[in-house]
């Protein structure tokens, strides 16, 4: 099934501490955002790519898109202050597919089969996300002390992107969140606020979000034997 994708790259990369947007950091001599975009350039089920960027980085992004010879049209949209604002702007640029995926540009290692399973799940149920079961023991830490409290991890998952939605659902979710000034850390949380179910599709642990400097080491290791199939 065909889908459009909104790829988010309008952040500042503060936690990467690289002095610039982490999307431009080279991973095996290729910018991070190019690794991510190439996934969807190569997926025949992806009918359209909307790239959300910081307007101040337009020239650099356009130069990279020309250098890396994309065949698909990549529509560039200005991001916003928060990730959620960037998604909202991306939704306004959709071209008409029934299913839209929202993906962090900082996640270059998602596998195509997982994406296709995700799209199928969203087509059936309306909304779906990729994720993996947590592997560590999870604790809550009291705000005013170092006291911890163990959380039962048996039904706790670490949620990734892409997240897939029927367009009318995610648009309604963002509209409600904007009206109520609710800010979520992912798009699925906005759909849950509609009282609608969101379904999980198990991914793998290679679908990391490059966030802090040590993630660059993991990325080099993953790339050393990488295949998105
Ligand atoms: N206003 C924002 C904030 C984030 N993002 C994007 O959302 C994805 C996930 O966000 P995160 O990993 O937090 O990236 P940054 O916000 O850049 O990182 P930091 O929080 O460390 O500054 C990234 O691809 C980022 O570029 C975005 O498009 N618009
Ligand atoms: C959307 C996300 O990647 C799901 O895990 C995550 O919530 C993004 O968080 P960030 O702080 O905006 O990177």
From TrEMBL:
<comment type="function">
    <text>Catalyzes the formation of 4-diphosphocytidyl-2-C-methyl-D-erythritol from CTP and 2-C-methyl-D-erythritol 4-phosphate (MEP).</text>
</comment>
<dbReference type="GO" id="GO:0050518">
    <property type="term" value="F:2-C-methyl-D-erythritol 4-phosphate cytidylyltransferase activity"/>
</dbReference>
<dbReference type="Pfam" id="PF01128">
    <property type="entry name" value="IspD"/>
</dbReference>
<dbReference type="GO" id="GO:0019288">
    <property type="term" value="P:isopentenyl diphosphate biosynthetic process, methylerythritol 4-phosphate pathway"/>
</dbReference>
<keyword id="KW-0414">Isoprene biosynthesis</keyword>
<keyword id="KW-0808">Transferase</keyword>
<comment type="pathway">
    <text>Isoprenoid biosynthesis; isopentenyl diphosphate biosynthesis via DXP pathway; isopentenyl diphosphate from 1-deoxy-D-xylulose 5-phosphate: step 2/6.</text>
</comment>
<keyword id="KW-0548">Nucleotidyltransferase</keyword>
<feature type="site" description="Transition state stabilizer">
    <location>
        <position position="22"/>
    </location>
</feature>
<comment type="similarity">
    <text>Belongs to the IspD/TarI cytidylyltransferase family. IspD subfamily.</text>
</comment>
<dbReference type="InterPro" id="IPR050088">
    <property type="entry name" value="IspD/TarI_cytidylyltransf_bact"/>
</dbReference>
<feature type="site" description="Positions MEP for the nucleophilic attack">
    <location>
        <position position="209"/>
    </location>
</feature>
<feature type="site" description="Positions MEP for the nucleophilic attack">
    <location>
        <position position="153"/>
    </location>
</feature>
<dbReference type="InterPro" id="IPR018294">
    <property type="entry name" value="ISPD_synthase_CS"/>
</dbReference>
<feature type="site" description="Transition state stabilizer">
    <location>
        <position position="15"/>
    </location>
</feature>
<dbReference type="InterPro" id="IPR001228">
    <property type="entry name" value="IspD"/>
</dbReference>
<protein>
    <recommendedName>
        <fullName>2-C-methyl-D-erythritol 4-phosphate cytidylyltransferase</fullName>
        <ecNumber>2.7.7.60</ecNumber>
    </recommendedName>
</protein>
<dbReference type="InterPro" id="IPR029044">
    <property type="entry name" value="Nucleotide-diphossugar_trans"/>
</dbReference>
<dbReference type="InterPro" id="IPR034683">
    <property type="entry name" value="IspD/TarI"/>
</dbReference>
């Amino acid at each position: 099934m065909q889908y459009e994708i909104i790829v988010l790259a309008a952040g500042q990369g503060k936690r990467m501490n690289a002095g610039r947007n982490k999307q431009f950091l080279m991973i095996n001599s290729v910018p991070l955002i190019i690794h991510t975009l190439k996934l969807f350039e190569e997926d025949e089920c992806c009918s359209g790519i909307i790239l959300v960027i910081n307007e101040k980085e337009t020239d650099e992004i356009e130069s990279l898109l020309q250098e890396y010879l994309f065949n698909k049209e990549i529509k560039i949209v200005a991001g916003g202050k928060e990730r959620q604002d960037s998604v909202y702007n991306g939704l306004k640029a959709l071209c008409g597919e029934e299913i839209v995926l929202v993906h962090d540009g900082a996640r270059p290692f998602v596998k195509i089969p997982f994406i296709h399973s995700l799209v199928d799940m969203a087509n059936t149920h309306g909304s779906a996300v990729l994720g993996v079961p947590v592997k560590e023991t999870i604790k809550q830490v009291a705000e005013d002390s170092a006291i911890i409290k163990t959380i039962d991890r048996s039904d706790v998952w670490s949620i990734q992107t892409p997240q897939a939605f029927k367009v009318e659902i995610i648009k309604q979710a963002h509209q409600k969140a904007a009206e109520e000034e609710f800010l979520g850390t992912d798009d699925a949380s906005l759909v849950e606020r509609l009282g609608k179910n969101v379904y999980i599709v198990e991914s793998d642990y290679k679908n990391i979000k490059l966030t802090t400097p040590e993630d660059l080491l993991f990325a080099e290791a993953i790339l050393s034997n990488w295949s998105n199939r």
